[in-house]
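Lab notebook: predicted structure, single chain.

Context: the supervisor wants predicted structures on file for every construct in the current expression panel, including those that have not yet been purified. This is the next one on the list. No modifications to the sequence; it matches the entry in the shared construct table.
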Amino acid sequence: MRKAFLFVILLASWTLAFSQTFVSTTPSNKKVVIEEFTGINCGWCPQGHLFVNDIMNDHPDQVFAINIHAGGYAANTYTTAEGERIRSNWNVTSFPSGMVNRTKFTTSATPVYGREKFSPYTNQALAQRACANIAARCTINSATRIMTVNVELFYTADSQVDTNYLSVALLQDNILGPQSGMGLNPTQIVDDQYNHMHMFRSFVNGNAWGDTIATTDSGSFVSKTYTYTIPATISNVPVRLYDLSVIAFVAEGKDNIINVCKADISYVNGTPTLTKMAMREAENCDVEFPTYVSVFNMGYDTIRSLEIRYGTNVRGGYTITRSGLNIGYLERDTVHLPVMTGLFSSLAIYTGYAKIIGVNGVTVDYDSITCSLKKVKKNTSGDTLTFELTTDRYGSETTFKFMHIDRSVVDSGGPYANASATHTIKLAVPHDGCYILEVYDDSGDGINGGYGNGNFSLSDNTGLLFTNDGRFGAKAQYFLNCRGTSNDIDAASAIDFAIYPNPVGNTLNIYCDQEVSKIEVFDMQGKTITVADNSTAVNVSSFCTGTYVVRITTDEGVAVRTFVKE
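Prediction complete. Output recorded below exactly as produced.
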């Protein structure tokens, strides 16, 4: 009777102990980590990234990616000593390639396979029973940049080997930079740069092969705590706290990962943070620059209002208060800022900045965020422009359009022969007005992506207006204020026509000093969205977020403006 009572006490103590843990004690199948070897000069690597993204989308919270920049194709960009140690251990020379749970699914001598094997081997791994469950929680002190990671293991069955190894990897998202072949994964192209995701930065526990786990029998419970000071930069890349993630996994050795998890992250001493700023030219020939910022709330208090100061390196001093917000803890939102006008006068690259100076009516002084803007508007002279286009050896991917701001095409060309060649095209300007020159690359990596030095330039009767080195992603776009062969729409420039607010949420108001017979709204592909007769307002509440063209017709002619739908 005494023994039975003692057993009950021990069982109750065990239950109490595990009720305070966060790792599951229920047997489960494996989760998967795909460690992908990549590099900025690897033309096929974006396709590997795309394959892995698709796999993660198909298996949310079951599959995780670690992108390791290492080897010759990385060109010492984004590389780390630990990442190179992993690549070297398996002598990886083919890119893109990777490991699915570091498991050998065939009789090959290595667990490294090509991208076409990622999906089938992931499915095999997900169907396998794990001998251990793993869970992790992470706290980041925003003031000190100290990260604390708690990892728990529970063995639901005996491990096949006596000693296992626990690794904790630090990753970073949203690193904009160069990448060959980025058109193979267009969803990660931002302007003319590539948005690198899941990039390996370091091992939190300081060891490429992990910490020793000696208790691996069924029923074993392991708890580990790591502290790590997050550096300001890694391999010359700023380490942004809000773009970090932590992946923990346990393996039988250097091979055979048993199970993996992604840590839940919370923040201490966190504040509302601007994570992104985007400033672009208005989709017309006006000197207007729509701007927005992305807000991530790392503070516990819900954001109801923000006061933001913003500007550029040549003019600043804009301040806006946005009320009616509802951004909770660890939530993100986009805040549109009023259009900046009259800041620039020539082709150049400028720096925009924004910073939060007030939250919920309380004055603060948080770090600013910056972005770059390349101005691509130009005034031209003469009624004929000379467009000189040099293709790379994949000219069949290259086309162009020269069109009026209302998207009516004046001239176009391509696709061209698959050979590096120069094409000289005379573009006749039919009348005064705003025009758009767009050059396209079907593969999304421009015409100077490692397959020949494609480029283009535009000249008028006074000489060279601009050149483009061909590194532009899927599309390069220029707005041109042109003088044409006739001035038959000059009356349009005299029409007193205004729209407001811009950006707009629900109703776009229209002011004109003349009677308007028709109002038309187009998207930026020229598709008609709505048509109205004489009116002073257009309901845009159902429009998708983006940029649109509004064109009015009067007895004196037509006039166009662009607006941004929030």
